[in-house]
Amino acid sequence: MNFDLPFIPERSAKPRNSGITMMMDKGLSLRETENFIEASGGLTDVVKFGFGTSFVTNNLQEKINLYKSAGIRPYFGGTLFEAFYARGMVKEFLQTLDKYDLDLAEVSDGSIMINHDEKCELIRTFSKDRTIMSEVGSKDSGIIVSPAKWIKMMSTELEAGSWKVIAEGRESGNVGVFRPNGTAHTLLINRIIARVNPDDILWEAPKKQQQVWFIKLFGHNVNLGNIAPNELIPLECLRLGLRGDTFFEFLPDDYAERLKQVNDETEEDDED
Questions:
Q1: Residue 173 in contact with residue 180, Cβ under 8 Å?
Q2: pLDDT score recorded for residue 19
């Protein structure tokens, strides 16, 4: 940090197992990637090449090398895995990971239906040679997954070898663990975390109000994903209580109460 400031919560150090931030790269150029790394590389743990963008991205290997040289783990979005799977090309998918020397991969079934036992077997097989993140939840807002099914799928995928299970939210933030208006599906999330360790979950939360909600619920070291490149520093400020939305979260109680009392008194004076 650039200067000392008390009562700033301590962030876990990279490589992290909690407090992970996943940036979603939807087509940055090489120059933009370099600029991103200069500005926010130290705050970023993993980068997802969103959906199938890696298929059409220019200079893909060079981008992968840039991220890896900055201590960031890049991986292909789960939709690309599903595109290979739908074409009967699982072996070719693994060969593609090897071609680009990627040690992190996502297994998902958000766009297509995969028998869950088969999905877990794929996770079990893939995780022998690489780190696997698996995604739970549909990208289709019309498909409703019960809390019990969320819990069962997350638990069995972790048992099969997933490092983290990703809670579907899409880059739009209006499906999966979110309602169509973007607010958190509180009942569902509370049911999930009663049975699944939150540290094992990476919550897709592209919108600021969603990030704030998760930070207030789980604390500053919550795992968050689908963060836009220009939102890494703003998110880190939310994590550290350096934005208005989380300003009082990490101050000592006596400080927070005193400041809130001053705010209330000031508002009363303004009304008079």
A1: no
A2: 97
Q: What is the residue type of 113?
A: M
Residue-level pLDDT at 264: 65
The stretches in the chain having pLDDT less than 50 are: 272
Backbone angles phi, psi at 115, to 5 degrees: -50, 130
Assess contact for 108 and 79: CB atoms under 8 A: yes
So what's the pLDDT on residue 49?
Answer: 97
Q: Is 159 helix (H, G, I), strand (E, B) or coil?
A: helix
CA-based max dimension of the chain: 72
C-alpha to C-alpha distance for 20 and 224, rounded to whole angstroms: 6
Cα-based distances in Å from 116 to 121, 123, 126, 131: 9, 10, 15, 19
Altogether, the residues listed in the chain come to a count of 272
Q: Are 54 and 76 in contact (CB under 8 A)?
A: yes
Domains within the chain, CATH numbers bracketed = 21-240 (3.20.20.70)
Q: In this predicted structure, what is the pLDDT of residue 137?
A: 78
Measure the CA angle with vertex 68, ends 65 and 71; round to 5°. 155
Q: Is the pTM of this model over 0.85?
A: yes
131-136/104-107 β-pairing = parallel
